[in-house]
User: Fold this.
Amino acid sequence: MHELDPKQGSVLSDIGFTLPPFLGSNIDEHFHRIGSQPAQPWLTIAKDFASSELPPKSDHWDIRSGWTRCYFLADDSSYSEHVDFRQREGNVEEVLTLDVKAMPAYHPYAIMACTALKNARYTLNIAEVSWGIG
Assistant:
């Protein structure tokens, strides 16, 4: 069938090597821990983000080219302002969700992106900047 004749094979000498320490109480735990170590700190950041409550959606956006941040107030009102990039207290936001909008009839690339973060919502209007669609 496969034309392999075991009589024509050779026996190799025994090899020996030291296995690394076993991590966990079984093979599944071992490989899970091996994979979890290089996943940090991103795994912790993602779990924290997934368990957080996102700000509400805004009823009104100030749509213009570039990034717009929507601020939410304690009285359930909101307002938006143009910003250079996504930041909070002077630091670039760590993690966000992204929803990209496209208008294939006008251009093959995205024209707008909406993001949700733990502390804010943003829009990025690309069309007016790049293609004069807005």
Remarks:
- Confidence is low (pLDDT under 50) at residues 129-134.
- The longest strand covers residues 66-72.
